[in-house]
Amino acid sequence: MDSSQHLQPLTISSYLSLVFFLLAIVFVIFPLSIGIPYSDRLPVIPIIHPKHGKKIKIRINLATAPLIAIVILLATKSIGFQEVVKGFLGTEGIQPYSIMILFYALAYICISLDVTGFVECCAYAFSNKSGKDGRKLFTYFYILFNLMSAFTSNDVVVLTGTIFLVYYTKISKIEPPTAFLISEFVAANIASMTLYIGNPTNVIVAQAYGITFLTYSAWMILPTITAMILAYFALYIIFRRSNLIPDEVNSPKRNPSDALKDKIGAIFGVIVLGSCLITLMGTSFTSLSVWIVTLPFAVIMLIRDIWYDMTKDKKSNNNVKRVDEEKADIETIESERVKKNMGLEKKKDETKENNKSNEHLSSDTQFKRNDYENENEQIVDIKYDSLNNDLDENNELEKEITMENNSFHSTFFSQKKKSSDLITTRSVPLSILNSKKKKPHSSKEESFDSNRENDLSSIYKEVISEPHDNDSDNSIFSTFKNALPTVYSVVIRMPGNLLPFALGMFILVEALSSRGWISRFAIAISALTPTYPVAVISIAIISIILCNFLNNLPMTVLLSRILQDENFAKAPHVIQTPAIKQGCIYALIIGSNIGACLTIVGALAGFMWDKILKDKGEKIGYWQFVKWNLGVLPVIAVGACGVLIIELWVFYDKLNN
């Protein structure tokens, strides 16, 4: 059958669709902010940023560029609403809405797990094994981030692991932290090939061809492991030669369990995530969509977070009430002690006038006074211990004031106090009464470790602090944050820009298909894939290149539709050699994952990674990033593609012969 019979003629609408598709990509990579004069008469539209001075700014970026392109195409009648509907609901087996549900459901589970301190706990468990050896530390962190990405996704690792690395390298004084940050990013994007859910691009391809969870992993596990190992040696050699992996590091030592902010929540989160993965494997033989499996587990996690916030607040309020009662008791005892001491001083003056006649009485009174003081001090000690037990139970409530605990005991009970001393003691700030007693240090080394721990905590608090948002002052956001702080912490860290970007790109690709471009691209791809070894190499190279021009998500949508087009799928050599089609499918998965390792713009994870570093005062420039990864990407691409070609040979040639 002649391929030309399947070509749709190109029109002005076709060219406009292609132009605005490319323009949307340009503004995603190079966002633009346009300032226009502000007037109270102008209507407020969603893409307009809050006013700055006498101007308002329109942002054309990741979230808005595809939507603006769609609006223009609709206004010029280059596309119709049917393309918008198809782009949202999907065609050819690809369901954009289900991909987004799957992504956000899994992201919520993983970020909620991170909020409990689980990721930090794991990081300390790995780092403690390295001792002071910088090379071991590099290796252990590389293994950790590979494991995290293999069982979650590359975006989750970037969102959680990058923040910890910035904090850890600062406290360890690893300057510059380039080797650790880039190896984390590379590991996240390689290991994401392991499972179906590791990257939205995996889901797109798997949906397009009906690949099950287990079938996907069966084909991809060996190329992924090969790429992981090759990437480690390539990164290690490159960074050791550049002296970016130190021989010795002054790593902070911390009990991993101390990093858990919510131990029960961490255990619950691990069980939920594990159950979700097991269920996905168990249902992979059915026609059940993966989002239907994943969403209920995310809802369970959300309900648990809401319950935790509500019960924590109730417990905190009860503890605050008890703390207030204990403070009132201590102040009452102190008041009585002051009055008694003043009365005793007055009685002492009276006894001096009677001298020897009342000597026995004076001695007895003095004894009772001392006994009364000692008794009151014991009572205060008991009350203070009870107060600290409450504070230990409510550590989350009181963690803001733990830095004020500079020995209340030594101030309050150091020696016998005169009346004036006791009056001064009552003026001790209540925040000190609220803080926990600080254990005395037995040596200079312990004192240094304590100061280091305080520095470490302050740096981590600075690093993980939420970015300032104009909306944070809004009463709705404030109420949400105060009522459900855990849920708020999770939601605020989720990549919200991904939703309009992804859905917008699905619609734009649908526009290209309906206007005749996809069929023409399919004929070109068919000519580049005469055999399965050539097909694997060709598609891998094309997808890697397009990743860094289009971004991996729109690239995967585009190439998936091209490979589904009958001008490729029904080409004689593809029908006669099934290994060609299979090779193209998995080569596309390889390219969409590792292609993100070349430039920052190769994947959405790159944008998030770069933004986190800039927000936290670290910067790895675009060309610096490319320079380091140019030595890594070819190695892992050759290794992964080589293993895939061997798998195709074994499955289609050796076993069939």
From TrEMBL:
Domain Citrate transporter-like: 59-302
Transmembrane parts of this sequence: 12-38, 58-76, 97-119, 139-167, 218-239, 260-282, 288-307, 498-518, 530-551, 585-608, 628-652
Localisation per UniProt entry: Cell membrane
Main location: membrane
Alphabetized UniProt keyword annotations: Cell membrane, Membrane, Transmembrane, Transmembrane helix, Transport
GO molecular function: arsenite transmembrane transporter activity
An example Gene Ontology CC term for this record: plasma membrane
Region (Disordered): 341-372, 433-453
Biased composition (Basic and acidic residues): 442-453
One of the Pfam families matching this protein, by short name: ArsB
Membrane topology term: Multi-pass membrane protein
InterPro entries per UniProt: Arsenical_pump_ArsB, Cit_transptr-like_dom
Similarity section: Belongs to the CitM (TC 2.A.11) transporter family.
Protein name: Arsenical pump membrane protein
Native organism: Gigaspora rosea
